[in-house]
Amino acid sequence: MRIGDAAAATGTTPRALRFYEQRGLLLPPRTASGQREYGPREIARIRLVRQLLALGLTVEDVAGCADRLDLLEGDTLPPYGSPGCTGGTGVVQRRIAALNDEIGRLTRLRDRLASSVPEPGAAPETVAGPIPETLACPSP
């Protein structure tokens, strides 16, 4: 199967598949003329990579354990702690910690923004600080 067919079969684009290959996530065999040839094994790997990315891992996270992706059977993730990328490497724990840090940062940012505008019906003195006129939204 050629790159366009592989992309369509896995719900991605040929450009993404080339990017995965460039980052070491995928190494499809080539024909004598140099064209990429995707078989069932490569399709399963693409699906697994996309699943890991959809779970919040970065391309760098997945690339860090790309050599172990073939240990995972089929195109669905095994239970946590199984061999391969999802267990034992610390990748998942590091990504969860990074996500928790980002959630904390965004929560603080949201709280600061929310405290800078009065709630409907609140007295103006409850505002933590004035919003510059250029940022104030006109009333409907």
Automatic annotation (TrEMBL):
<keyword id="KW-0238">DNA-binding</keyword>
<dbReference type="InterPro" id="IPR047057">
    <property type="entry name" value="MerR_fam"/>
</dbReference>
<dbReference type="GO" id="GO:0003700">
    <property type="term" value="F:DNA-binding transcription factor activity"/>
</dbReference>
<dbReference type="InterPro" id="IPR000551">
    <property type="entry name" value="MerR-type_HTH_dom"/>
</dbReference>
<dbReference type="InterPro" id="IPR009061">
    <property type="entry name" value="DNA-bd_dom_put_sf"/>
</dbReference>
<feature type="region of interest" description="Disordered">
    <location>
        <begin position="116"/>
        <end position="140"/>
    </location>
</feature>
<feature type="domain" description="HTH merR-type">
    <location>
        <begin position="1"/>
        <end position="68"/>
    </location>
</feature>
<dbReference type="Pfam" id="PF13411">
    <property type="entry name" value="MerR_1"/>
</dbReference>
<dbReference type="GO" id="GO:0003677">
    <property type="term" value="F:DNA binding"/>
</dbReference>
<protein>
    <submittedName>
        <fullName>MerR family transcriptional regulator</fullName>
    </submittedName>
</protein>
